[in-house]
Protein 1
Amino acid sequence: YNMDFFETETHNIAVIPKGLSSSIGKAIAERDCVEEIKRLTDSGEPMADFIYKAIVPHTETPSKPTAALMREPIERLLSALAMNNTNVQETIESLKSGEGWQATHPIFMPQNLESIDKVFRFPEQEEDFCTETGLPYPLPKLNQSKNTKPELTEEQQEFFEEYYATDIKLYQSL
């Protein structure tokens, strides 16, 4: 899939599904889109978290330094599985065959952050990420699943470690 970026005054920040994109989007919106938030909340109704992310300008062609906050890849996967209440084995079969919604949904795709100028490890480097991008620290905690994260069998763990090998290598290098 094509990487999407939030546009800020100084950076293009990678939008990564289950990679704190709602939290980052809300932080940017509360800083840069105050009038739009005011207009949308004039009725007195609170705004859904996903709306914040939607009102921040986006681009697929970054023109500023790029930055990303990277979750541990297997932890991101487990969070995605829990959020969507998705069967682990069905997900593996979908990713292997290239068929089914999991095979094409960005939430299960590798993060592919090798071309990003500055990648920060979450949670250890969240404060550095916020300092670099001018966002408030700590970021709001959003989209936390109420479902239990699945336990992986050894075979499933090995499949996902291979599937996300490039992401894991990058994460470990940070």
Protein 2
Amino acid sequence: SVTTKSPSAIGTTSATLEGTISTGGTSTTPNFQYGTSATLDTYTQTSNGSASSSATLNPSASITGLSTNTTYYYRVIGEIGSTDTLGTYYGNILSFTTGKTLRTVTVSATSTTISLGQTTSLSTTLSAGSAGTTTYEVVNGLLYCSISGSTLTADATNTGTCSIRAIDDGDSTY
């Protein structure tokens, strides 16, 4: 039997694929196929070692150069005997998603101190990637300020400090 196992060490551009192959003592060469097609109609195949006659193989393959925040599909395959005799057996197709690129987001305001009833404009700067639609919300100090779009308004009668949070495309909170 040929069984695809859950991957380990999934990073932003890499992962380690794993599987199990019961060979029945027949010379078997393990490999993996992976790609972004759920059916693996197009794929990259690893060269995962030489043939072995061990009763059970536990192959793994570290793959790199993957795209960030992308779902990949993969399976283990076992070339049992020669391809002319016993053939190639395929494990089940599983998937994983690589991580997002880490980035720093800086929220800035036209003015960090505003008078009662006055406004200031907010903006964000990203260290990597492109900005999506950014929304802002008050997380502390609702009595002292409010936000509409990217405009922060100080309350007309109460003084105090408020904290804000920027949310980029509903994807990540900073």
